[in-house]
Every structure is written in C-alpha cells, then in structure tokens.
Amino acid sequence: MNARFLIALALLSVALRLTAVFGAETPAAIPPVPVVDAAHPSSELLKLRDPFKRPRVGGATTASGEEVKPTSELETLSVDQIKVVGIMTGPGAHRAMIQAGDGRTFFLAENSKIGMRKGIVKKITADSVRIREKIVNALGQEESVDTEIRLPAEGRGQTAPAGSP
C-alpha cells in the first residue's frame, strides 16, 4: 500500500484511541456562516472596502469634519493619476516635473503639498518621487501611505546640453 495512506491510517487510529480513553468533548456552538446571494448583496457588504484597492477618501477634512479647501492646483490632483516626466538634479536639491492626467505639468520640490489627501513630497531622487498621504483606514484611524512614482526608463540618465532651453 501507499506509505502516505498507511501513515494517515495510523494517525487516525491513534486519534480514535485517544478519544475513547479521554472522552470526546463537544465544541461550543459555532454560529452558522451567513449565506450571501451574489446577485443581491446586503447593504452591510456594500459598505466594506475592497482590501486590494487603495482607499478612496474624499477631500481633506479637519478634526471637526469641515472640508479643507485646496490652496494650490497641486492639491486638487489625484496622486494615482500623475506621472513623473523629468527630474532636475542640482547641487542642493532635486526638482521633479510631473504631468497630471489632464496633461497639465507642474514642478515639485521636497515638502511640496500635493494630492487631495494631504500629501507631501517626502523625497525626490534621481529616478523617483516619494509622496506620503494621510488616509483613513477600515477602522476609521488616520494613517500614512507612501507612494513612489518612478521616472520611466526612457527618461533616465538623459541630460540636456548646456545652453539648451
């Protein structure tokens, strides 16, 4: 016979002997699992967030629940829809040129405010921009989420000739 079958049979017989010697305890009543009809989901399930998608939160709000108005165009952008077009390096700091989903371009420096979720540019490297946003998690707690937007491979390492516009 198969060795795995014999091992499983031996384990089963040991378990049955132990149950007979010590007596079988009945487990506490387990509540039944609710049945969900996929065609008609309950309103409770519709309130749950998809754990595999980035949380969508409206505009920033104060502790009292009042909506905060953006102070610049950068704060009206969705971080998910921007792409890094170029990064300028200098002796003191880097600056990034980004493009919004609608084609508008902006320049960023570290500590610039960006995005609808109180985002701040934390770091600009030679090939990426790291943005930290504040979101509200499933438990209603505010937490920080870092997003790194990389410069496309075809734009890396290219330098503009001296004196070019």
Question: Can you put this structure into words, describing what you see?
Answer:
The protein is an alpha+beta fold and 165 residues long. It has a domain at 72-155: SH3 type barrels (Roll). Helices cover 15% and strands 26% of the residues. It contains two helices and seven strands, in the order ααβββββββ. The chain has helices spanning 3-22, 43-46, and strands at residues 83-89, 94-99, 105-108, 113-114, 119-124, 128-136, 142-150. It has a four-stranded antiparallel beta sheet with strand order 4-5-6-7, with no helix packed on it. It has a three-stranded antiparallel beta sheet with strand order 1-2-3, with no helix packed on it. β1 (83-89) and β2 (94-99) form a beta hairpin. The longest helix has 20 residues, at 3-22. The chain is elongated, with a radius of gyration of 28 Å. 10% of the residues are buried. The model is unreliable at 161-165 (pLDDT under 50).
